[in-house]
Amino acid sequence: MDNLGYLFAVNVFVWGGIFMYVFSLIRRNHSLKKDLDLIKETLKKDSGNE
Amino acid sequence: MSDASQKSDSPGYGLMGLTAATVLVALGAIFIYVPTERTEGVVQRIMYFHVPSAWIAFFAFFVVFLCSILFLWKKEREWDIYAHASAEIGIVFCSLVLITGPLWAKPIWGVWWVWDARLTSTLVLWLIYVAYLMLRAQSEAGSIRAKYAAVIGIVGFLDIPLIHFSVLWWRTFHPDPKFITTQGIGTGNETSMNITLIVALGAFTLLYFLLMGLRVRLERMKDEIDRIKKERLYSH
């Protein structure tokens, strides 16, 4: 039974799925980190103005 | 002010490098090192993704079970964070189990899916934890949501022994355990097959811890943003 192409497609699908999840986590982490830093900076500026 | 983004539980480059290296070794073992199985051919190699995915899904849901108990007992948000993170990762790997299983079954059995005990109970497990994540997504954050989620997290885990023993208790299409059997671990298998499976299990386990680090870090940052917002709201 020669299903090498099929096996390759399954492999691409599995790792594609895993990497998509990893990259979505990294992207969400970066986005939240940016938001958090922005909030902190705004708070610092606000407390400086008061 | 505690800085969630700087917490030490975020995955370091060391873990990332080790995971990437182990994944590459596992891929090398799966595609180059291990011999092709005589009856199933190259399609059998799908098992080196399917079995580790199942292992990680079960392990992730065990972590949900354990952390949910600890949350109900100690009432500490930390345990809720770990349970939530692990449930999401468990769903990802349980989805891979439910996808790679039929992809293996079609060329071997001739059908994508049969409603046998192992397959059906695995689908039920997936649905339980999808419900767990839906509950968390649809209800307002707080201790009530965490309590309900913890109860689902504990009850849902009871399906796992059923999945494991289903192939022994009932007549199923799903193959019997080949790696961990009553005769011992890996008995009767070719050594190279056992080594490949162990390396793949190791790679997926490292991947789990890497994903946990990223997911927990995300949840901590959300908590910190919420805390700052609440502090600002009450101070005005």
Share in β-strands of chain A? under 5%
What's the main sheet of chain B like? 2 strands, antiparallel
Mean pLDDT, all residues of chain B: 88
The assigned CATH architecture of chain B is Up-down Bundle
* Percent strand of chain B: under 5%
Topology:
The complex is a heterodimer of chains A (50) and B (236).
Chain A: H1 4-49
Chain B: H1 13-33, H2 47-74, H3 77-109, H4 117-138, H5 143-157, H6 159-169, E1 180-181, E2 184-185, H7 191-235
Antiparallel strand pairs in B: 1-2
Overview of the structural elements:
The complex is a heterodimer of chains A (50) and B (236). Chain A has 50 residues and is an all-alpha fold. In chain A, 92% of the residues lie in helices and 0% in strands. Chain A has one helix and no strands. Chain A is rod-shaped and about 75 Å long. The termini of chain A are far apart. Chain B has helices spanning 13-33, 47-74, 77-109, 117-138, 143-157, 159-169, 191-235; strands at residues 180-181, 184-185. A two-stranded antiparallel ribbon of chain B has the order 1-2. Chain B has a single domain (13-228), classed as Up-down Bundle (Four Helix Bundle (Hemerythrin (Met), subunit A)). Chain B is an all-alpha fold and 236 residues long. The model of chain B has no long low-confidence stretch (mean pLDDT 88). The chains are: A mainly alpha (50), B mainly alpha (236). The interface between A and B is medium-sized, with 26 and 32 residues.
Q: Which terms would index this structure?
A:
heterodimer, A: 50 residues, mainly alpha, 1 helix, 0% strand, rod-shaped, B: 236 residues, Four Helix Bundle (Hemerythrin (Met), subunit A), two-stranded antiparallel sheet, 7 helices, 2 strands
Summarize the structure.
The complex is a heterodimer of chains A (50) and B (236). With 50 residues, chain A is mainly alpha-helical. Chain A is built from 1 helix and no strands.
